[in-house]
Design brief:
Elements lengths: L4 E4 L6 H31 L6 H18 L2 H10 L3 E3 H34 L4 H4 L2 H26 L8 E3 L6 H6 L6 H34 L4 H33 L4 H23 L4 H17 L4 H14 L2
Parallel strand pairs: 1-3
Antiparallel strand pairs: 1-2
Helix pairs in contact: 1-2, 1-3, 1-10, 1-11, 2-4, 2-10, 4-6, 4-8, 4-9, 6-8, 8-9, 9-10, 11-12
Length: 325
């Protein structure tokens, strides 16, 4: 097909609202990038954090940065330049990377649930099962599966026909929305979409549910209530992240299938693509003493290199973070 141009209708056409949205989304984007970069630096530099849990967390932080970067920067540029058009190639590229990082989030959350399952249900075999080679292999296989599936989506989309200047009622090119505005038959695309949703969303969710079913069963068999509470408390942050990610994700799906309100769909998409990556660092790490300690040491070394007073400067830098908890 010839090259087409799409028009992203965005969140609002009101200039005043657009100004507010620009400041809001820019702030949220910067907070997401900064928060997740701090997590990556802390887990990388802290030798005591070189464990499977923080290995997966480091990857999750990278994926969150990439996930929000697929949609928000272009939206900010469009608001600033007062343009709505996006080329056919740019739209397919955005769809490709959005699928990759959204589904990698699914896989990483499942791997983290499996890590908790092994740690609580099979503590004596934990170091044997969750060795660095096995963890690296799990992440590598996840990337390969997702890259191949995402490429297949794009190859199928390249067979579709679109009108020039087709309007997409969204603030970025999302797969389901792009398929709806195609002029040609999308049956094969939709079949493959639902197959991959089952394989890459439903199966991971079932894996998470199974892991926590086994964890709860194991905790209920523990004789010590204190030990049970301590073991389960290590899972609370992960449960919050899982609930937020899948809750907003299912909100996007049901708003697309059930409601005909474009505003409702956009709100659900904003929650899924922007709010979730923003909150993940706060939910997962700021209440984690190991990560906070690693951040203090990291900022302390930075302050020392800049000839500051380490303890004083470190406490001042972390004080706003502690006040938010």
């Amino acid at each position: 097909m010839g090259l087409s141009q799409f028009l992203l209708l965005g969140l609002s056409e009101d200039p005043k609202v657009q100004s507010i949205l620009f400041v809001l989304f820019l702030s949220m984007y910067l907070v997401t990038v900064l928060g997740n970069l701090l997590i990556i630096m802390a887990t990388t530099c802290g030798s005591h954090l070189h464990t499977p849990m923080y290995f997966f967390l480091c990857h999750l932080s990278f994926v969150d940065i990439a996930f929000i970067s697929t949609s928000v920067p272009m939206m900010l540029v469009n608001i600033l330049a007062q343009v709505k058009d996006i080329s056919y190639t740019e739209c397919l590229t955005q769809v490709y990377f959005f699928i990759i990082f959204a589904r990698m989030n699914n896989f990483l959350l499942t791997l983290m649930a499996y890590d908790h399952f092994v740690a609580i249900c099979h503590p004596l075999k934990y170091t044997l099962i969750m060795n660095p080679q096995f963890c690296g292999l799990l992440v590598l296989i996840s990337w390969l599966i997702i890259l191949c599936a995402s490429l297949t989506h794009i190859l199928l989309m390249m067979q579709l026909n679109f009108s020039t200047s087709t309007e997409i009622p969204h603030f970025f090119c999302e797969l389901a929305q792009v398929l709806k505005v195609a002029n040609s038959e999308t049956l094969i695309n939709n079949i493959f979409l639902y197959v991959t949703l089952v394989l890459m969303v439903v199966f991971p969710v079932c894996g998470i549910l199974f892991s926590y079913f086994e964890i709860v069963s194991s905790l209920m068999r523990m004789s010590s209530t204190a030990n049970s509470y301590k073991a389960f408390s290590t899972c609370l942050s992960h449960l919050c992240v899982v609930s937020l990610f899948y809750g907003t994700g299912f909100g996007v799906y049901f708003s697309s299938e059930v409601t005909h309100s474009s505003q409702g769909k956009l709100v659900a998409s904003v929650m899924y693509t922007v709010v979730t990556p923003v909150l993940n660092p706060f939910i997962y790490c700021l209440r984690n003493k190991d990560v906070m300690g690693a951040l203090e040491r990291l900022l302390g070394r930075t302050a020392c290199c800049l000839s500051w007073t380490p303890d004083f400067r470190t406490k001042r830098l972390l004080q706003p973070l502690r006040q938010m908890l």
